[in-house]
Structure formats: structure tokens, C-alpha cells
Amino acid sequence: MSTYAIGDIQGCQLELDSLLEEIQFDACKDCLWFCGDLVNRGPLSLETLRFVKNLGNSAITVLGNHDLHLLAIANGQQQYMHKGDTLDEILAADDSEELIEWLRYLPLMHSDKKLGFVLVHAGLAPQWSIQQASQYAKEVETVLRSDGYHEYFANMYGNTPDNWSEELGGWDRLRCITNYFSRLRFCDLNGRMDFKEKKSPGNQAPPFLPWFELENRCSKDQKLLFGHWAALRNYEVDYRGYNVFPLDTGCLWGGTLSALRLEDEKWFSVPSKQEE
After folding, report:
1. Which residues contact 147 (CB under 8 A, 6 or more apart)?
2. 11 in a structural domain
């Protein structure tokens, strides 16, 4: 049995098919970890969503910002739709309601002590220990799985508050937690997030740093798997020195779709079929 952590698919189902062939995936004995952003911008989001859902217990998936975006649009927040969204086919599908309901029950974070890895979509606030992060993830997941989830999506969007405080409450607290898990790239030493810069490190304004490079990060002793940041494929740094494994290698943008086998930390990848 092997466990493979796979980067952002975003509807690139053909590449996922090729990657699973490359690793000789066997659903009867292997397990796939998906770091979120199963859908949007790519050509086959509906097919990807159906495929991962049908994997059942052979897959573990955490929510990414595009997955949350789909949930919000499906729950009445059409004002936040973007020109480049490719979600219409999902929303019009006969099994749309079933797919959306399945997605709503996915976690923000997954931890496996035996394998020694934690999976998130974007990152963790530097102030959070793994135990705290798990607790905060559950706060959002509880609301997502409750009768109040419509109100959550009505309050999910926004860049404030941009820094964590245990004193935060209400929708500000849940929005801040959601943004760390699903949108984080750069932050300062105090954990204040910068949402403006999306390119590779070196382009950001001071005092912001890649979140995983902060020396005071409470989770630095834990192996962390994350996606979300395709531009990191152009950033030459010793990620293992930071105990992180960036999974998004830019398939949607003409790069590759990659998988990390967790048992021996061996990488596999297939080229993108998308135009950069």
C-alpha cells in the first residue's frame, strides 16, 4: 500500500489520469491525498469532481479556495463569480446537488501521525501549533456542516481581518481561519497576511515572507503538504529544510501535475496538456 499526495488539479482530469497511470495507482490498496482546488479554471472540473468523489475511502481531500468558491456560488453568492470560472457545467449537472453536498463535508486539514504528514491547501498561521490548527479547522468545518452554512458563504469573502487573534469572534474569526487555510502565501513575522502578491518569493514587499520561512512558525517541526502556490515551482530553495512539500507544480498553467509518495518521499510528475 502506498499513499500519494497530489497537487492542485483544477479540472485537469486528463493529466490526473496520466499521473495515476504513472504511479500505477491501485484503488484497492493505495490512497490518494488531494490538497484541494479540485475544480475551476481547467476544462474538466465536473469530471474531476465526480472522479474524486467516486474514489470513496481511497481518497482524502481538503478544501481549497476554488472548492469553497464553488460552494459559495452554488449557495447563492453569484455576485462573486469571476470571468475565468469554469463552474457552469457542475452547477447544471444532474448530480450537482449530490456533488456539492459531498464537497461541503470535506475538511480543511488532514493529519496522519503514522505517516508523519499534515495536509492543508495553502498554509498555516505561524502562531498555530498543529493541535491549534486542527481545532480552528474544526470550527469552520462545524459551521459548513450545519444548517447555518448558507450564512457562512454570505460572509466568507474578504481580506479582513488579516491577522490572527484568539479574541476574534463571529464571522471575522471564521473568515480569518478560512483565509489562512485556503489563501495564505505571504505573511509578516506576526502572521499578518498579504493577499496582493501571488508570484514567486522575491516579488513581495517587505516585511512579508513566504509563510513557511518564518523562523518563529510553531508548526516548523511537522512535515506539511500544501498546494495553492503554483509559482513556487520557479523558486529554488531547500523546501525540506523548512519541512514543507509544495504540491502545486502549475499543471493549469502549462507546468506539471505532481504526486509525492509519502512512504519514501519520492516525486512523480506528468506534463500538462494545458497552454501556459
Report:
1. none
2. yes
Nearest residue to 87 via CA among 68, 60, 102 = 68
The predicted-structure confidence for 135-170, as pLDDT tens digits, reads as follows 999 999 999 999 999 999 999 999 999 999 999 999
DSSP string of 182-211, one letter each residue:
HH--EE-TT--EE-S--S-TTSSPTT-EEG
* Cα dist from 54 to 1, 59, 153, whole Å: 19, 9, 26
- Angstrom CA distances, 160 to 104, 153, 218, stand at 23, 15, 23
Q: What is the DSSP code (8-state) at residue 39?
A: S
Other C-beta atoms lying within 10 Å of the C-beta of residue 263: 11
Asked whether residue 276 is domain-assigned, the answer is no
**pLDDT at position 130 over 60:** yes
DSSP conformational letter for 260? E
Q: What is the mean pLDDT of the chain?
A: 97
Mean pLDDT score, 85-110: 98
Given this model, what pLDDT does residue 276 score? 54
As for how many domains the chain has, the answer is 1
Q: Which domain holds residue 154?
A: 3-271
Has residue 208 been placed in a domain?
A: yes
Question: Within 9-114, where are the H helices?
Answer: 13-22, 45-54, 65-74, 88-92, 96-104
The CATH number of the domain holding residue 257 is: 3.60.21.10
